[in-house]
Amino acid sequence: xxxxxxxxxxxxxxxxxxxxxxxxxxxxxxxxxxxxxxxxxxxxxxxxxxxxxxxxxxxxxxxxxxxxxxxxxxxxxxxxxxxxxxxxx
Length: 89
Fold this sequence. Notes:
Blueprint lengths: L6 E3 H6 L1 H11 L3 E5 L2 E6 L2 H25 L6 H9 L4
Parallel strand pairs: 1-2
Antiparallel strand pairs: 2-3
């Protein structure tokens, strides 16, 4: 995704806040806010932010699973079910 057309100054944000919020909801794309010509913040619609957070959590879980697999911390399904059914060993 290119953000070239999704860059606005902080003064634009102040003058067009309602329009920007409506656009964020409709397009579900981030908006870069600049101050003195430099990128300072990124605005996201709440739904897009929630999706981003869920994606990050999933990537963390996949990374953990990958590390555990590389370290040999695996069980077959049968072993896992047996341990679940008989927790005392």
